[in-house]
Design brief:
116 residues; membrane; DUF1290; Small basic protein; cell membrane
């Protein structure tokens, strides 16, 4: 619950802040943000599965974002759009995690109805 409140506060601060990112950095930022969203969905999944570890989440959150941005930068310097591969991979992982989160929530709701 605290993580969800923190996420809402972070989104609110991000929407209210007047930060302009130069257009040349948009591919790197988009991949880094997608990596962060993937980490958040993974954390929600781990929390619902009762195996969440904060240190793994924090290292994955920042590590995935930095690695994704670095790979996008490297691909840009090599003239290869590597960021497209990152978008596909992270997008697939987000949808996989969302499907598992949805199933876990539905299973918990059904078990509550049965009184388990």
């Amino acid at each position: 619950m605290i993580a969800f409140i923190g996420l809402l506060i972070g989104i609110a601060i991000g929407l209210m802040a007047k930060i302009n990112i130069p257009e040349k950095f948009s591919p790197y930022m988009s991949v880094a943000i997608l990596a962060c969203v993937d980490s958040v969905f993974g954390a929600i999944r781990a929390s619902l599965s009762k195996n969440f570890q904060a240190d793994i989440f924090i290292s994955g959150f920042f590590g995935n974002a930095a690695l994704a941005a670095a790979l996008a930068y490297l691909g840009d310097k090599l003239g290869i759009p590597i960021y497209i591969a990152a978008v596909i991979v992270f997008g697939g992982r987000i949808f996989d995690n969302f499907a598992i989160i949805r199933r876990l929530i539905i299973e918990k709701a059904k078990s509550r109805q049965r009184g388990e």
